Amino acid sequence: MFPTRPILRSSAAIELLGRIGADAERTLAYLGGLATLIGKTSAALFSSPLKRGRSLQRAVHQATIVGVQAIPIVTLITFFVGVIIALQGAYGLQRLGAMHLVAGLVAISITRELGPLVAAIVVIGRSGSAFAAEIGAMRVSEELDALKTMALNPIDFLVAPKLAAMAIMLPCLTIWSDLMGVMGGALFGVAGAGFTLGGYFIATREALALRDVTTGIAKSLVFGIVITAVGCYEGFTTSADAEGVGRSTTSAVVISILLVVLIDLMFTYLFYFARLGV
Amino acid sequence: MSLAPAGRATPIVSARDLRVNYGDREVLHGVDFDVTQGETVVILGGSGSGKSTLLRTLVGLEKPSSGEVRVKGADLANATARELDAIRKRIGLSFQGGALIGSMTVGENIALPLLEHSDLEPSTIEVMVRIKLEQVGLSGFEHFSPSQLSGGMKKRAAIARALAMDPEILFFDEPSAGLDPIMAAGIDDLILNLKKAYAMSIIVVTHELASAFLIADRIILIDRGAILAIGPAKEIQQSAQPRVRQFLDRIADSSADDEVDHLRMYTEGI
Asked: What is the ipTM for the molecules in this complex?
């Protein structure tokens, strides 16, 4: 016989449920805040699409910081990741006597997954955090209020150029990081697996379908939008003290990585079951 | 106690039973006053008196919870974003800490509203920036970044930016706070010069008595979220009202009041 006891006997259980409810509410409010910010920024971008030279200038300036200046570090990291995937793959493939498959393994893991993901994580570390710090510091020093009293909307002025820059530059960085990952794989292919350089690239091309690359780029576009939204939202909601800016910056990084991985999971799941990528 | 000097034109700024809440807490408990064209009004009050909230409400950064605030005839609480922007192009606000955009030079900061809201040629804007900087005594500083300026210079640069659009109403938030007496006197002189040179209305929020009596035509003394006294500077100076006297003669509150004020200081802005 089971002892008969009410499910919510203890107040601790009620408290736990209450906490779960409160957390869920906060999470929903946060996501709602992000969605509102993305909506307002898109509206700003589409209603007055960078038509004035200065908005375009600001977007180009952001694109330089977010994209162009990230090239060296993205190059370095994805190149090494390419080498690592090749090494890890070779470890298994060697035993099966299938070393010739290493090029395809690298190509598919990089273009579908690691290229977009590594580019996104580098951009979160460099720019997502910087957005939160920049806007947070502006909030603390009343610069956001100053913009408002000058009849300048902080969303048009600050967020729109960042979103435009990010939506364009993260896919570009992803293409670059795909390339560099394959180059990393090629280094191992040539040095350790008996490929010629030309042969390695032919094997890569044969292993890849166009949609391996395009799904990766599509993901990176969404990543770019989410990273911008989280960074800017954290900045706008910074509490008005110096510690607040630090906290916002940390949250921007942690929450961006979490959301990017969740979105990645959703994309992969959808592509898998839609048999688009299989 | 009159809301505005008798026999003058329609007010350029007016508040009627203005109440502002932060969450559940009411920080302004029904404030009434008018500011007429060309007048310099000082809103004087201690820490936590609600004077900064009042200023933020007058420029549309806070929404009143009830009552009415009109600037140039437009009701700020019910104005659309576009109407609010139209009003804001006609006002200038000099923030306490300057609030210059840190990523821009001083010159770019002053040029910003002109670039965004006018179709002037860049060369014309450059000249205007130089004129505004000269007016505030900062000639030659256009290529400095805000972080290279001292506190007093930042305030001057902020005043130059507030003047950029030739506003009809100029607001100052604590213009002399945090400055040494000489610097503070310099800012007072600057405000007096602006008052003489332009026909604009000036609204200054401060807790500095000397500065208030020097620049004000009229003073609004605000205490615990309500107007304690309002009138010409001289009238306020000679007021016999005990609470006014206490503020003017800088007498500390009794300890019970002190604690409440102290708490209020911490809860200000929540």
From this structure: 0.87
